[in-house]
Design brief:
- The chain is an alpha+beta fold.
- It is built from 5 helices and 2 strands; from the N terminus they run αβααβαα.
- The longest helix is centred in the last third of the chain and has 18 residues, at about 70-85.
Length: about 90
Amino acid sequence: MQLSRRYHLAPEAGPGSRAAATVSPRTLILAGRHDHVVGFADQEDLLLRYPQATYVVLEDAGHNIHLDQPERVASFLRAWARALHESA
């Protein structure tokens, strides 16, 4: 099967699943507004699974957000990791 035909969050990993309960709620969700593969709006559904998540949509980024906006992605990752460290 082609990878592009199965680009979705498996039901067994969705909100309320056993798999969801085993993952730390401290989560960073970065999405690109111009993601033509999985979109950005579906990532918002992950907030039901991770209510304490940080959710960021970068306006000028696509599916490969880390390639489209490497400096901004790195900045968000550093800030998020710093906040985790400070709250520990």
